[in-house]
Structure formats: C-alpha cells, structure tokens
Amino acid sequence: MIRYLPLTCVLLALASGLHAASKDVIFKWIDDNGAVHYTQVPPQDREYETLKQVGAPGTAPAKKPASVRSDLQKQVEAMDKAQEERAEAKNQMEQQDRIRERRKKNCEISNRNLANLHQTGNRIFMTPDGEVMRLTDEERQRRIDEANRQIEENCK
Predict the structure, then answer these.
(1) C-alpha–C-alpha distance, residues 127 and 75, integer Å
(2) Handedness of CA 118, 122, 127, 130 (dihedral sign)
(3) What is the pTM of this model?
(4) pLDDT digit string (tens) for 54-66?
C-alpha cells in the first residue's frame, strides 16, 4: 500500500492540474469530416484554437451576488424616487391648473359685477338672503372698489 502512495500523489496532482486547466480554457478544433468542435480539453492529434481563458490575468473578477443585489436595490430605489417625484410634479401641475381655472372664473364674475355697478347706478339689488335693497352711494362705491380689487387679484 505504501508502495502506491507516490504514484497516487503524482496522479492526483496531474489530474487536479488538468482539471483546473480544463475549466479555464475553451478550445476550438475541426475534425476530419469538417465539423467544428468546442471542448475544454485540447485534441492531441490536430491543431486547435484557444478561444476563452476564464480568470486570466488582467480580467476583472466577477461581482459577488450580495454586491449585485445591493446595486439592483439601489437602482430600484432610485427609480421609485423618480416616479414619486414625477407624480408629485404632475399633482402640482394639476393643482395649478385648477387654481388658474378658478381665477379665470372669478375674473369673469368680477368684471360682470363691475359692469353691473356702473350701468345700474343707484338701483335696487337683491342680497344673497333674498332681501331687496337700494344701495347708498357709499355702499355702491365700496362694491365698486371690491370688484376692482378682485379684478386686480384674479385677472393677471
């Protein structure tokens, strides 16, 4: 048994060397019939081409799965944040549109009120409660001033 120990060690070393070399290189060769073959072991009786050497000096090591997962998580978070920002910007634009539309309506109402106050003079007005009243000169001027203020505020 001890007699086979050196031979076993040599065979193991040779096999592990061939196994490691076979993982790192891919060989391309053509057989007698013209068929192309790709193997991890070079053929003994013909020419071959070395195509790929994995883990060769100068090549970048592969990233660890945890690092890749972390990078992907950061990208997902950045995309989520960008989507939230777009939704917020859209919401603000819609709110500004509603404000603009409301101001436009208020501008039209204020202009109509001012025109009525100038045309009617000291005529009778109906209050929101349904009460009929005649405006005094001071009340009429106060309403004209209020209409002008609302025009200035809403008709920019």
Answers:
(1) 62
(2) negative
(3) 0.46
(4) 555 555 566 788 8
